[in-house]
Amino acid sequence: MSALSQRDPDVAAIIADERTRQVESLEMIASENYASAAVLEATGSVFTNKYAEGYPGKRYYAGNQHSDRLESLAIDRAKQLFGAEHANVQSTSGAEANMAAYLATVEPGDTIMGLSLDQGGHLTHGSPVNFSGRLYNFVPYSVDRESEVIDMAAVRKLALESKPKVIVAGYTAYPRKIDFAAFAQVAKACGALLMVDMSHIAGLIAGGQHDSPVPHADMITTTTHKTLRGPRGGMILSTAALAEAIDKAVFPGTQGGPHMHSIAGKAVAFAEALQPEFADYARRIVENAKALAEALQAGGLRLVSGGTDNHLLLADCNSVGISGLKAQNALQGAGIITNRNTIPYDERPPYVGSGLRLGTPALTSRDMGPDEMKRVAGWILRVVKDPDGDGVRETVRQEVAEFARAYPVPGITDVKLAV
Ligand SMILES: *Cc1c(COP(=O)(O)O)cnc(C)c1O
Known about the structure:
It contains 16 helices and 15 strands. It is of the alpha/beta class. It has a 7-stranded mixed sheet, with helices on both faces. A 4-stranded antiparallel sheet has the order 11-12-15-14. The protein has a two-stranded parallel sheet with strand order 1-13. α7 packs parallel to α8. It starts with a helix and ends in a 14-residue tail after the last helix. Bound molecules: pyridoxal-5'-phosphate (PLP).
């Protein structure tokens, strides 16, 4: 019996149920993934006990000799993985990393450009309900109405008119490659800094599937738990010129003590991403997304921008006559876990949405390939074309659970697989 199940059977039972859910469902939320057993072990370690305010060699509390070694190792690995001049691994989340990046480079009221939220940008890229939209003057750019991809000529025109201090590139629901070199040219032309938020695609960049923003951007923020497969957390990379400002903005600017247990998990995840196998993993994520996209399109589901270059696709549920919310709920009933999303120029309110965002990182972590994606697409099509059909969800849920159990989940080794 584990210490947890002895001390607190209630929480232990909830965690056990969550393990089973993760094994028996198809996790297709594009921002989620399965961390390895090694990452989970490091994240659940005794470093949760330690206060380490400050940075390696400059801490405010005693007893940090091992925290220093750990954080230095994480920093070195992050710099090596992305070829960056500077890395700060203390941000506790992607949102905190973005807050620190703004704090380091602009003043309240200054102008920043980011993709609008309803077109695939993130809350922290200027949403009025978020600190970013309340503190800074965000000028949103858009995707082209026809092609549904970012039109760099329009971005350039808007940047020259609005003269932002920072331009943010990097999104939550954008299925195409981002031209970082073109963004850098626009930033240069209007005297702005370029900030890339690579939260979603960090693993694809680490694995060499997408071009690196590092040669082009002044600062790069990211989460560590999405395609990168690390623990829940954030990170900021920057040029040497911004290093001091970034470090000060993280601590003491926006955070107290760093989460050393997460930093342990990050260090492990960076080492995993430095292995040659990780490049193959990143390649398979994209291959799977393309296979899924083709099968869904062949079945009559329209995809925003006509396909994908990365780990996610955005389906337009209007093409099957339902809302994104309806699709999300019906699929959940069938054991396929997704999220609804707005699509560009959506006519439905954000809470309902016309889009369904689907990602392949977690399924790829279970070693599924293009053949499996075709089967998954078949189940998705069956459900979204007949969301209220008699027994449709139940039948698919049973088929999905049986199928899913055959693909082991990294990090979950102790669930008894009922066959
Ligand atoms: C996920 C995400 C974030 C926020 O990360 P959290 O860890 O949830 O705070 C920020 N920016 C982008 C582009 C994201 O996709």
